[in-house]
Automatic annotation (TrEMBL):
InterPro entries: Glyco_trans_4-like_N. It holds the Pfam family Glyco_transf_4. This is Glycosyltransferase subfamily 4-like N-terminal domain-containing protein. SUPFAM superfamilies: UDP-Glycosyltransferase/glycogen phosphorylase. Residues 16-177 form the Glycosyltransferase subfamily 4-like N-terminal domain. It comes from Candidatus Gottesmanbacteria bacterium RIFOXYB1_FULL_47_11.
């Protein structure tokens, strides 16, 4: 199987989501000996971060695709207008795991994503308006297109079911591992 993963969030080093993506990719490549991974990274100025990360990975079954597109453009392109399928950048995929910021259209791949929490929708008055708007747009596409959604906790799963009206069958709780 050809599995695409959006690693764009790793440019935000030291953040929870960036660390989560790094560790998940490292673990998948360490334990999975059957599938091929296409790691997709988008950043205008920080593409070197993707290459440095990729250099630390076992690359026998992995390929890195980077594009010089800033997150604001991807938000417009994918979350707002929902144009240009991810496969235009990565080639054919069976599965694409999106990040917590953008939801690209899929030509053929089955979509999956991780929802870490629903803070922006539960407490919009306490969250930057731009972040709330971005999450609303992205989550509307997630609801329509993702075959599976990973949730960090039972609480997040409950919030996703209530706030997005997504059936529990599409949700899997996968607790983030501890890193030292």
């Amino acid at each position: 199987m050809r599995i695409g993963i959006d690693i764009s969030q790793i440019v935000y080093e030291g953040t929870g989501v960036g660390t989560y993506v790094r560790r998940m990719v490292e673990a998948l490549l360490a334990i999975d000996t059957k599938n091929t991974y296409i790691l997709f990274g988008a950043s205008l100025r920080r593409r070197g971060v993707f290459e440095e990360f990729f250099a630390t990975l076992p690359r026998a079954r992995a390929r890195l695709v980077t594009v010089p597109i800033p997150p604001t453009i991807l938000d417009l392109m994918w979350n707002r207008f929902h144009t240009t399928p991810i496969e235009k950048f990565t080639g054919p995929l069976d599965v694409f795991w999106s990040s917590d910021w953008t939801q690209p259209p899929l030509a053929r791949a089955k979509g999956m994503t991780t929802i870490h929490d629903m803070i922006a929708l539960k407490f919009p008055g306490e969250t930057d308006k731009g972040i709330v708007a971005t999450h609303k747009r992205r989550l509307a596409w997630v609801k329509k297109e993702c075959a599976m959604i990973l949730c960090d906790s039972q609480s997040t799963k409950k919030d996703v079911m209530e706030l997005l009206n997504i059936p529990g069958e599409k949700l899997r709780v996968v607790y983030p591992g501890a890193t030292l």
